[in-house]
Amino acid sequence: MALVSYVLNGKEKESRVGQEIAGKIKQIASELGYQPNHLAKSLRSGKTHTIGLIIADISNPFFANIARVVEDEAKRHGYTVIIGSSDENAEKSRDLLNVLINRQVDGFIIVSAEDSQEQVQYLKDKKIPFVLLDRYFPAIQTDFVSTNHYKAAYNAGVHLVKNGYKRIGMIAYDSQLFHMQERIRGYVEALTDNHIPFQEHWLKRVRISAIEQGVKAAIDEMMASEQPVDALIFATYSLAINGLKYINELRLNVPGDLAIVSFGQAEAFDLYYCPITYLKQPIGLLGQTAVELLVKKLKEPQAEPSQILMEAELIIRASSKTKSLVNN
Amino acid sequence: MALVSYVLNGKEKESRVGQEIAGKIKQIASELGYQPNHLAKSLRSGKTHTIGLIIADISNPFFANIARVVEDEAKRHGYTVIIGSSDENAEKSRDLLNVLINRQVDGFIIVSAEDSQEQVQYLKDKKIPFVLLDRYFPAIQTDFVSTNHYKAAYNAGVHLVKNGYKRIGMIAYDSQLFHMQERIRGYVEALTDNHIPFQEHWLKRVRISAIEQGVKAAIDEMMASEQPVDALIFATYSLAINGLKYINELRLNVPGDLAIVSFGQAEAFDLYYCPITYLKQPIGLLGQTAVELLVKKLKEPQAEPSQILMEAELIIRASSKTKSLVNN
């Protein structure tokens, strides 16, 4: 049947199959409203030069900025980026993957949502090229580039201990995602490694679907105890923004009443009355590397997965000032 | 040939054309690697149920939040949204439109980039359904939903005059886009209508490709004059963020040295030491209405364009406090 295929793709002299038969096949195909399957075609020709980028939440400036970097880098490589936002929702993530697979993207860069592990396994099984960005599943061998979330949280905890804080809390998401587990693990180990016995009520887990109320309740509980926390690590940008607004409402002084370190980064941290110490993830390098890994994957689908962890940098500012200096 | 088409789409009993012929046609189609043309199919069935959203800059929280609303609203209507960011660049916008047209979206919601008027005209000529969001071209009859940018800027200017400010500046983009012209016009008319003769050096236009340096130079010039401005309107969020950082660097007090009103909205304005007065655009309503107009357009392609202007709300906070109170 290869000969017939040639006819419709116009790659062979029609004489090889006979003009009459060729004409008939073309007529049938045309009358059926059929045209070459672009997916099959692009699999043969190599590329549609389009990348699908699935991010977890477009309204989070960390992901919005990552998207901007991915686009710039993809353009340098000759790719156009189509973006979908899963809003941290596995069902929406599945819809988007389906839509973009049907739209014949060459491959994906994905910031995975909660409970989307099966989708990643599916892509892997179907040999659809992808790179995970920022979040990955240790149980699945995939290409990924991510911040070392454990180390980042560990450094934040050690920094607060060294600056004299003794009751250090963390507000995190109630999530099974590995990066969140790693942030929690890093925080807990920073305390125990530095002779501060971790106390369960210092760690609050907030549901992602009810951040505002969750953060308020968490701070209320932490501050109401006889020995309120004197420092707080926010495990994400959204937790921090909600937390800082509530801390202002409560008229708590930062860092006098409560020192702050946060994940995420945003103009809001710079413009706060007491600039916020934060873990600066290498957004530019993360985005660039994700594109490079995907481009490499598209060229060499059989290559071993590349798995890259990058370090976050702790940007130390007034919100976590040495405790003895604050009280002066 | 309609009968044969039915066979492959599985909509007709095979007996009508004879099982043998039906089987043969299917076999040929399959061996050719052909599948139904989704575009042709969707043209007949109506929809692919996918919307392309082109935003001007994904890293601007105003657009990121609009994207989030459009997605939620589209999902309610049974549509999936694919996003592209033009980064305020007409060439990138054209690439994205092409990619998404080839990806067979049903229609577009577009926040237009500079110099993209021809693209809008092209979509209109080709009868590709679209709705313009936030920015529109008065010379082209299209569906659009936008803030009344003129009125918003006018209200900001009047508010500052009423609160006792006499030398009111504006930093805007050096852009031909209509919404920017309207913001400038509103600012100028607010002054002249209130007996403050507008002075050319109060209005600075910053190139979008060099915001940071442009804003610094603008503020330097405005403050260096013998009669420095005592209030400043930022015409966009990015201008404001860069401006506020520089105002902090210069250790200017807000509003004592300089009152501030800004377009755009973001957590940064809430968390600034002196909360920023801003023009709150109805993001939720803008996004919802854009989706509704597009859905309507898809159902009735021949209907007259809907053109909707919405009012921004001036959220008054400490950064534009009555001047006599500031000096006490």
TrEMBL record, chains A, B:
Keywords: DNA-binding, Repressor, Transcription, Transcription regulation. Residues 1-45 form the HTH lacI-type domain. Gene3D superfamilies: 3.40.50.2300, lambda repressor-like DNA-binding domains. The keyword Transcription regulation applies. Pfam families: Peripla_BP_3. SUPFAM superfamilies: lambda repressor-like DNA-binding domains, Periplasmic binding protein-like I. The keyword Transport does not apply. One of its GO terms (molecular function) is transcription cis-regulatory region binding. This is Transcriptional regulator, LacI family. It comes from Spirosoma endophyticum.
